[in-house]
Amino acid sequence: MAAAASVHSFIAYCNLEAFFRMDMLSSRKNGITLVCRIPYQPYRSGFIILETFTMKRARQKAVVENEAPQTSQKSKKQKTCLYGSVFGGSDLHASMDWGSLPHHVILRIFQFLPLVDRARASSVCRRWNEIFHIPDLWRRFEFELSQPATSYLKSTHPDLIQQIIKRHADHLQYVSFKVDSSTESAEAACDILSQLVNCSIKTLGLISTAKPSFMNVSKAHFASALTVVFVNSKSLSSIKIDDTPLDDPSLKVLVANNSDTLKLLKMSSCPHVSPAGILCVADQCHGLKELALNYYILSDELLLALSSEKHVDLEHLRIDVVSENPGQVEFHTIKKQSWDALVKHSPKVNIVMYFFLYEEEFDVFFREETPVTHLYFGRAVSKAMLGRIGMNCPRLIELVVCANGLQPLDDELIRIAERCKNLTAMGLGECGVTCRGFIEFVKMCGGRLTQLSIMEEVLIPDNDYSLDRLHLEVSKHLGRMWFPDMMPTW
Questions:
Q1: 3-state secondary structure of 41
Q2: What element of type H or E holds 44?
């Protein structure tokens, strides 16, 4: 999936170093030494720089002390001047009282601290501890649950979890549970969910960092825990519960309490959910904008329900088509009329399909026109299948092929370029295409190809073009400099 990762990235990255970072150093007898490391950037009339200071223990005022008694009077004056430029005062005393920092400044600092550092900093003084419990700091929280013996992931301390449940359950709004592969971690997540009786959660995500450990929890235990949140929140707008034992009764509880607020529902690989269960969601959640599910739940009835007049326009429909063993699953066919009804009702809908099938299982797909916009193939796909995509996927925007056979895909790519006028992104992994065929494909697509990720091993030199000449020719047609992706060497 290297090509998929380079072509289509959904990762949002927040660099905490861009503003502030505090690291706890070794504890002393009379205080806790902190290092405050802040990038060189303007703040009011001065600049914040690297500074080391000592803070007294809890319930004592934090006072800046000189580390060495030999420090000259000149150095003291320079430090006083520095603090004066930072905090806007020119006559501050040399022993700056950090406990008297403005409330909004401490709150802002706490927002950028890792949870562990924030908890430790809260023990510096009573005022910092009060700020530590301000509701605004607990709107977003990720419970990290792992077993030290089986996981490299850090884990949220149990005492802190109990403190959150006791004091901040009603403040939580954007919550996720990250668990490892152990059943104990998934059961711990369910135990926490069961205690959120006063919650007002808006977004909820259950994330398995390895194999889906939630599937090892009993269906009754999981459904009971999730029902507590579904019943008490009444404002859920976004839910990610992939690879879980979610069932139809749980969905009905969700709909009964959150039908007016639910906008995003991701529930791929939930084997206990039937088409009737998801149909209940489609019929009653008229504000639904994004839906992710497994192909076995997809049906003509569901697409028609999403196309009814009372239903708000769907923006994203993601479908996972997965098979673990060849021939185990018989895939049904969706009628062209059902697809057409959905697109007519929601003309701008993105239909995303992820395929993890064996070649012999593709037979039922794309024999008729299908309005798919994004296609990802995680396993090898045949030339014939790619040919059908070129003929029957006119709305295609993005195509990523992990692998193919040894035969060049020149004709298939050219057909895709001819018929798929909206194509803007292409990724090819373990495939083959001649340099001439690839240049012809790029020439037909032109500058609309904003993302083009092709492994160098994919390109087959011919009598007309070498690899050295190819990148110049492709760059000319794209209107920007382009090079094939290189396989990393370790």
A1: strand
A2: none
